Amino acid sequence: MSTPETAAPARRDKNIFAALELDTRLLGMVGAFILLCLAFNVMTDGRFLTPRNIFNLTIQTVSVAIMATGMVFVIVTRHIDLSVGSLLATCSAVMAMTQTSILPDMMGLGLGHPLIPWLTIAAGLITGIVIGAFHGFLVGYMMIPAFIVTLGGLLVWRNVAWYLTNGQTIGPLDQTFQYFGGTNGTLGTDLSWIVAVIAVLATVYGLWQARRSKQSHDFKVKPAWAEVTLGVIAGAAILGFIAILNSYDIPSRRLARMFENRGETMPEGFTAAYGLPISVLLLIAVAIFMTLLARRTRLGRYIFATGGNPDAAELSGINTKMLTVKIFALMGALCAISAIVASARLTNHSNDIGTLDELRVIAAAVIGGTALSGGIGTIHGAILGALIMQSLQSGMAMVGVDAPLQNIVVGIVLVLAVLIDIIYRKRTGAK
Amino acid sequence: MTTPLVDMRNISISFGGVRAVDDVSIDLHAGEVVGLLGHNGAGKSTLIKILSGAYRKDSGQIFVNGKEVTINSPRDARDQNIETIYQTLALADNLDAASNLFLGRELTTPLGFVDDAKMEAETRKIMARLNPNFKKLSEPVSALSGGQRQSVAIARAVYFNAKILIMDEPTAALGVHETKMVAELIDELKKQGLGIFLISHDTHEMMELCDRVSVMKNGQLVDTVRVEDVTEDDILGMIILGKKPSKAA
Q1: A393 falls within a domain
Q2: Are A313 and B103 an interchain contact pair (Cβ–Cβ within 8 Å)?
Q3: Which domain holds residue A201?
Q4: Number of folded domains in chain B?
Q5: pLDDT grade, residue B246 (50/70/90)?
Q6: B170 plus B153 within the same structural domain
Q7: Going by DSSP bridges, is the β-strand pair B195-199/B164-168 parallel, antiparallel, or unpaired?
Q8: What whole-number distance in Å separates Cα of residue B184 and Cα of residue B1?
Q9: ipTM of the assembly?
Q10: Domain end: B139, B161, B183, which one?
């Protein structure tokens, strides 16, 4: 008697998930992430889930997360990029020299010229794209394994960066440039809410559009309640995140300094919140761009097809060599964007910027469900992976775990995550 | 005699000093099935890959409908309405049926994005014709059976109005029922006026499906014969000994 009773609710649970058509793997990751946060919150007596720490966590994650989205494409096509940390350093060095020396002195623009940050960013992007494309050329056309090309790149670009700056720390960076770092560039309360509302509307529109497109071809659609539930969850998550960021007030001493810099005095009892950091907005823009690229463009389709079966892709008329160049060039561009965020956050370029980032980025992508055997991976998974890695690291630091033990734990988590993934894929029969 | 649909003349290709295909000429007419037979390494797959654009010939000429064409890539072959179903099926296992069917030729929206909904609808239509039992449209093709995967590979060729179809061991991985389905399909396509090159090891099957067979050995063409002029033993003799049957001219 008891068997059918216990079986029935289980089946209904399954039906609910099936109706929502959510990726159970993603749900598992979100669940693990939430558990992790709650556990750290308990261990730190509630300091982990404060607006302040959440704010810091997000801005610390951005740089690795941006690169992880590109690493997904690299790994999906069965390659690897070990040079991203070093490439970030070279891009950062180029940009540091461009904005503090080349443009102001050699080109005579003078420090603080309004064009400097934008020309600097352009120079950084070009550097990243050219070096990345060169890596892609060596891998795609010269047939050198990506592991070797980028292992070489790891050594080369780290030290090219050293030569560019003579090993010195270069700073302070341009004021406008620093907006991309996080703390020095946030939207404030009102703009953050506007962004949140736009995001919610875009989500609702996206869901509705997808449903309409399916209906127009007479495909089965989810029940309306499932669609609404999804919309509500997504909307609540967006608004909640912004509400948290908006409740983190700028420390009053820092506020006073900001008024002083503008030649004003701060009114008594004035408070202001940080709101959404521009760097996070940048990450969101990158995530949307990369997701569209992966799912809705031919380039993305070819990337996944090549990863699934390189021979089939080639026989279908896809130029897989040029594709490799494009993927590594894109990775280079993302390293440059990360270099902007990382150096702006530190307000200077230092010699060791991005050290070991290649491992964090690869770990984020892999924890996020990107299979090293190729063909499988998602952008949002990689970003979530980066967030999990960063939470783990900063949570352990807050709890007071010894530095060596922190790395031991991160290493074990990485291997465990992949093991769980392999078991999960076997159970569900997915490849 | 009418102009052949495909006329490959004096084709040669070498790999590192080995003549994989040595001065071979074959032709194919509309509404005809020509079989290519030979041992492993006889050069039949290599010859056919030259036609499908996977390899570049060292010398020789290819005529399609009497006009000489250059085929340097799979894309060139497709432009001549030459479609190939490979032995390995050449499917990206991680993508669904529609993505595989349209791989390299995606339908796009006016904004240039891939139009998945439309591709799925088209896949549904052609599958209803080829394999009415085919239901797993949104799953990766790795989840499909051998026969279903074969349907996807065939649909890919048929959907784009192939005039010339190359089938490399189309029944190698299939069960009895599915093999029969492929045979029926070949007959059907033949009636529609397609020319089909068929590669197989199965002499018996070839005798049933083909109008003519060309036998290759060590990269060279032994001979091309009409199946009604020869016995299965004659063909086996051609394959194994490389000797022309005495009866056939």
Answers
A1: yes
A2: yes
A3: 186-276
A4: 2
A5: low
A6: no
A7: parallel
A8: 28
A9: 0.84
A10: B161
